[in-house]
Amino acid sequence: MKDKTNLTGLNPDNFRSVINGKDTGLYILRNGSGMEMCVTNYGAIVLSIMAPDSHGKFENVVIGFDTLEEARRQSKDYYIGATIGPVAGRILHGAFRVGEKDYHLQLNSVSNTLHSGDNGFHTVVWEAQQPCENQLLLRHFHADGEAGFPGNVTVRMMYTLTDDNGFRIDYEAETDRDTLFCPTNHAYFNLAGMGTPTTSIEDHLVRINADFYLPIDMNTNNTGEVRAVGDTPFDFRDYHSIGERINRKDLQLLNGHGYDHCFVLKKPALHELSFAATCISPSSGRRMDIYTTEPGLIMYTGNYLPGFTGMHGTVYPRRSAVCFETQCFPDTPNNPHFPSIVLREGDLYKQTCIYQFSTQP
Ligand code: BGC
User: Fold this and answer.
1) Quick check: 361 pLDDT over 90?
2) pLDDT of 226-243, one tens digit each?
3) Minimal CA–CA distance to 122: which of 147, 149, 105, 103?
4) How confident is the model at residue 149, as a pLDDT?
5) What is the pLDDT of residue 197?
6) Does 187 belong to an annotated binding site?
7) What average pLDDT does range 109-114 have in this prediction?
8) Is ligand 1 within 6 A of the CB of residue 209?
9) What's the CA-to-centroid distance between 100 and ligand 1, angstroms?
């Protein structure tokens, strides 16, 4: 039964619980243009983004769940809609060095660490506060050693649903000891609208502001190489559908089982908020422009989605959704030629990402 109190149809009672002594709940953000977003503070998971199509019809454009249990279960393996951190992406052998000290993280992806292991930000109950209807402030105190990372880190995130239909994420963090920091958001988008039967994202058109991308090995680790996109299926400098080249016998697409790669964004200056990519669903006319302060954008085409059932009975098979993760280059700690992700004691970390929605005929 869809709940009538919100456009998404979620029942707030299904998200009320106590985990690790902290209260969880459902938070609803609304802007002045009729858009709505549902979020739970467990993992800071985005459960819905209700965005209009070219006829003004509002539909959910991200994978979501009806209950906290389901959201928790699926974000554990697939990080659905969650905030990832302290460090997003894979770290080779889970090993890194900060200052004079070596650290070893839990290995949860073959012999490597993915998305900071099983106890990353996606499992944290964030302290949540809604200063106004279109904003949610999420806070987490990361204690020294949590998930294997050094430093007592105070993390603040603001989710804003702007009146011009942007989902804006502002991250801030401070540490009392040098550490690594590079979070991201792991929403899975299908701009046709999540419904039954589920459509593939292979018809979505994508443009990415990148002349280079980072090749991966068979375990999806960056090899450290920075390769030009020209004459490859990774050239999205003009619009291409996701499906156009995804099944080519290209070693990189075979390694990723599709796209699961970091694009090196063309930027006016490192950490300046700038255009990263556009994604368009031709069937609905929905368009999403992505802006970020970060140097990289991972396009992950849901290659491992197993077909579980999510919100309102919707089934999400392989390639039914695509992630655009704005972040540092994966495995930066082991690639000194990538822009550093060391957060120094006394410095203020800042990151902004905007998923800007609009429509076109
Ligand atoms: C990674 C994929 C991984 C997925 C987990 C993505 O960010 O790049 O390799 O399978 O997260 O759902």
Assistant:
1) no
2) 999 999 999 999 999 999
3) 147
4) 98
5) 87
6) yes
7) 96
8) no
9) 30
| Residue 175 clears pLDDT 90, i.e. is over it | yes
Q: What is the pLDDT of residue 341?
A: 98
Amino acid at 61: V
Residues belonging to the active site: 186, 325
Structure tokens at 307: 């077909």
| Ligand 1 touching residue 121 (CB < 6 A) | no
Is the pTM higher than 0.90? The answer reads: yes
Mean pLDDT along residues 17-44: 98
Q: What is the pLDDT of residue 112?
A: 97
**Token pair 């004459």 in the structure block, residue:** 231
* Beta partners for residue 200, in sequence order: none
Q: Could you please state the CATH topology (level 3) that the domain comprising 10-357 is classified under.
A: Beta-galactosidase; Chain A, domain 5 (2.70.98)
Please name the residue that has the structure tokens 């002349």.
Answer: 211
Say whether 260 counts as a known binding-site residue. yes
Q: What is the mean pLDDT of the chain?
A: 97
- Which residue owns the Cα nearest ligand 1 atom 3? 78
Question: What percentage of the chain carries pLDDT values higher than 70?
Answer: 100
For residues 36 and 8, the answer to whether their CB atoms sit within 8 Å is: yes
Closest by Cα among 201, 191, 188, 193 to 80: 188
Backbone angles phi, psi at 253, to 5 degrees: -70, -30
Bridging pattern class, strands 95-98 and 101-104 = antiparallel
Q: Please choose from 45, 63, 115, 316 the residue to mutate so as to test ligand 1's pocket, defined by most ligand atoms within 8 A of CB.
A: 115
Domain ranges within the chain, ordered by starting residue: 10-357
pLDDT digits (tens, 9 = 90+) for 39-52: 999 999 999 999 99
